[in-house]
Amino acid sequence: MTLNSVETTGKTIEEAILVAVAQLGKSRDKLDIEVLVEPETSLFGLIKKKEAKIRATVKLDLVEKSKEYLEKLFELMGVEAQAQVTLEDDVLHAELVGKKIGVLIGKRGETLDSVRYLLSLYIGKFTDQKIKVVLDSEGYLAKREQALQKLAVSIAHKVKKTRRRVVLEPMNSYERRIIHSALQDDPYVKTVSEGEEPFRKVIVVLK
């Protein structure tokens, strides 16, 4: 089993840290160090010297954990794919690359969204920090956003023409936000969401 934390001693704090680095097999910058006991110097050799004691814990690496989790998931799904993961400003972005990547995207991105949800749950086990997870592959998100924006405009035109509301098919929260955003400045129609996940829908109505 891989060690994540050790308590070590040394004549100095730095010496204790070096022992921890060796035991954990991680570089100094990958460890969180807590000083448990400060070293004490002896007086003319008459008083026994107290060694330094520290607790070293491997820093949480969400990028590496996410990459490992995704690639294990792909293996279980029988899909040859890799994840290129970055974390910046509390947004974890994973770009999926590989063969037959369409399997990971799924119909209307449903599989991609399911994988994103699973990864969000997994990350939540390790941190209380609110991390937004974004999964993309071959520019799918940008293409889907453009398609939804066009759909929103088309539906708005239909509502104005028929003066009847239109209920869209169930969408995830990301897709619903795109519809809401696309029509938020329209002077004649408004959007509302109704229903429970995963069947929550956007409804376009006259103002």
Task: Set out the fold topology.
Layout: E1 5-10, H1 13-24, E2 31-37, E3 52-58, H2 62-77, E4 81-88, E5 91-98, H3 102-105, H4 110-124, E6 132-136, H5 140-162, E7 166-167, H6 173-183, E8 189-194, E9 201-206
Provide the β-strand percentage band. 25-35%
> Strands of the biggest beta sheet: in what spatial order?
1-3-2
- Please count the helical segments: 6
Task: Report the radius of gyration as a whole number of Å.
Answer: 26 Å
Query: Major beta sheet, specifics?
Result: 3 strands, antiparallel
Low-confidence stretches: none
Which CATH-level-2 architecture of the largest domain? 2-Layer Sandwich
Overview of the structural elements:
With 207 residues, the chain is of the alpha+beta class. The chain has 3 domains: 54 residues, no CATH class; 77 residues, GMP Synthetase, Chain A, domain 3; 65 residues, R3H-like domain (Ribosomal Protein S8, Chain: A, domain 1, 2-Layer Sandwich), CATH 3.30.1370.50. Helices cover 39% and strands 27% of the residues. Helix 2 packs across helix 4 and helix 5 crosses helix 6. The chain is elongated. The protein starts with a strand and ends with a strand.
